[in-house]
Amino acid sequence: MRVRWAFVFITAALVVSVAGLPSPTAAQGRGPAPVVVAPVETRVLEATVTLVGTVQPATRSLIASETEGLVVCCPAEEGQSIRKGQLLAQLRRVPIDLKLREARAARQRTEAEHTNARREAARRKNLYEQGVIAIEEYQVAATSAQAAAERVAEAQAVVARLEDELAQTSITAPFDGVVVKEHTEVGQWLNRGGPVVELLDLSTVDVIVPVPERHIAQVRRGEAASLALDALPGRSFTGQVSQVIPQANAESRTFPIKVQVANPDGLIKSGMFARVTLPVGRGRRALAVPKDALVSHGPVDLLFIVSEGRARQVAVKRGQATGTWVAVEGLVTEGQLVVVRGNERLRDGMPVKILPLEKAGATAGDGTQDPR
Fold this sequence. Notes:
Elements: H1 2-20, H2 24-28, E1 33-39, E2 41-45, E3 48-64, E4 69-73, E5 81-82, E6 87-91, H3 94-129, H4 135-168, E7 170-172, E8 177-182, E9 189-190, E10 195-212, H5 213-216, E11 224-229, E12 236-244, E13 254-262, E14 273-279, E15 284-290, E16 295-297, E17 300-307, E18 310-322, E19 325-330, E20 337-341, E21 352-354
Parallel strand pairs: 1-21
Antiparallel strand pairs: 1-20, 2-15, 3-10, 3-14, 4-6, 4-9, 5-8, 6-7, 8-10, 10-13, 11-12, 11-14, 12-13, 15-19, 16-17, 17-18, 17-20, 18-19
Helix pairs in contact: 3-4
């Protein structure tokens, strides 16, 4: 029994000893790390600030009725896209239609009376010019013709008013938009000025951005602004500062501005949060690298400069950022190649292999280091 236990202990010791030895692969290393590089460039970088704003429709309208009546049709539904002139609600037409028919008949009678009065006035004028009748008889006929003309005008006004009232029974969309809320339904009595639907036009949106007072003096109407929305990752939009409101919020001491953005596809929705980047100062020339070249180690930013097949670690100070480029200060010079992909696993002095950008992802899964 003692011999068996001694054999077990010796075998276990050998296994531990072999497991502790470095493998041939580990001893030789995995070869150069594949990386993608970009040159250090001198660029003019504008001073910018990124702020969070809220999307609002450029046009929001609570569509109301111009007349009163019973709702007999209400085809508009919440979430429905509406074209300009499309029917939103229909009121009962019969009472106004009957009044309109009576008014048109009355207009025809007054027009006939006016025609007869003009003919009589013309006949008496000829008789007066021939000396057959006195001027008083001609004047009476002319006065009657004038009165008939006024009655025709009054009848036409009544017809026009009733035609307008009849048109008002059909409540239509004043612009293209989307119905976000219904305020009436079939069978409801709608008073004059009563709400029908709430309509939004999202073909153009406004982003309301609160700008701190230290930056508001540099914001100008007409300046371009770039936008990114958390709800639409990977997409960027360009807008224009359309309004700068010169009244600060008393609590936050920020000034609201409006950035107008075209939204022809309707991807941007009302209420979304947008990150808006605004220019707030003059541009300046500086050495710059792509943002992906920077590796943060706590409070320190590092670059890996490729030289003679190896990556050399350099500490830099991050400066102004514009778009995908950021200014850097440190032991870097224009034209040096810095690692922009594959730098997360690099160490100072490691050998590297430069890959073309289009082949950067080809090494994943082949046993070498993924540059991402």
